[in-house]
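pinning this so it doesn't scroll away 📌
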Amino acid sequence: MKTVPVLDAKAHLGAYLEECQEQTILITKHGRAKAILIPAPEDEAELERVALAFSPKFWLLTEQAAARIEENGGIAHNEFWKSVEQTKV
């Protein structure tokens, strides 16, 4: 993994986009990790899975669902999808 400061990443983004195809690029600000450049999956479904893996809203919804299942056995299928539509993950 290569580590670069944010100012360097901004100045050379195109080069780092190419380089991240070969190795992960960790972007730091004031010495602290802020972002990671990885190659995007070519498969659209895999890209969506990667995006969801880093979505706080998705994980909150998942945790709430697990708590409801633990508490009362869950919710009806149609209620779940209504909730998803309202949440806009």
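📌 and the second one:
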Amino acid sequence: MGLLTRGARYGYEIRRELEDEFGPQWRIDFGQLYRLLASIERKGWVTARLTPGKQGPARRVYGLSRSGRAELRRWLDAPPTDAEHGRDEFPLKLRFGLVLNPASVATGIAERNQALQARRRVQEDRSAAARRGGDAGAWLVAEAQLHQTDAALTWLRSCQAVSPAHGLPAGVEDVHDVLVAVGSDDPVLNLLLRLANEQHTTVRCSSNPAGSIAGLIALREQRADLAGVHLLDVDSGEYNVPFVKHVLPEEPIVLIHLAQREQGLMLAPGNPKEIRHLRDLARRGVRLVNRQRGAGTRLLLHHRLRRARIDPQSISGYMHEVPTHNAVAAAVSAGVADVGPGIRAVAQAWGLEFIPLGHERYDLAVPRAVFTSKRLQPLLEIMHQDAFRKATASFSGYDFSNMSKIVADLH
């Protein structure tokens, strides 16, 4: 009936438009379609008339009646039913609601936002439980579900952008700004961004764990608003500043300290390969899983190997790259690798052994224009909250004593 709001249609036109616009999950065969059309015609919701065929028999053309339009409005006002066989009513309600009943769109967005947020909390709990249990398969499933939910929440903000502007019901976020974080993977930063999204409705935070170097490049290309970085300059022994100056020589950047983190090697429980030192990584039968190029964790491992006069290319799996600390831990937990670089907090979360390689400084690189804007304020406020400080106390291998301190103001 929603398709008929555009005008009268032949049955084959309804079938084609339904699948073309809403996807193969809404495919319906002609027998089902015409039985359905006959049913709603008997209810008086559609009308049908015969029109002469150009090269064949007469065909029935269907139109929407006044009572059908009223029934369609009632359907738009009703909450979407649970998706069956991949058929989610919500996109259809948005599509037709914007035309027939705009007020229902904002209400529907609010309800879907609440449902997705609740679903995400459940999925986060499942992901954490999988890490605690060292179950890489369950973790991958939970992560896939989290990514799908995050994508749905992002799409929901696009829905909000075209919803009526006469006022938003409770539960709909009136987002004015987006804060994009690209750079080093870090669980504390992820917690900070999540809490900002939960507590503030005017700024929406998103993150892409692409590595420290990629984060700085994203700042240079204006694809990000902040970058988590932990890059050691071997020549000077200084963290982050030399790299920021090199990658962003013309951009005023403020470096905000987040934490000191303990880096090391994550090993399978019980350390069955008896890995004790870096030189053990080059032994026959030892398999490494590494972080991607440009990640600060990978660069630190490379530096330590060179300092120990170990050729990185002599290590089996050195070119086996994954994008996050949790992905390294999952590979070790699943037995795909025997060892991988990462931080103590993630090793503890997965129940893995850990060999420390030292502490590093983890900063947030923020363009001065973002630093002085209202978009960064939610993050700075949360850094000083007692609840956040208590939550971060459970992260092993971190020192937060200088959190939020400005360690450099580069012009």
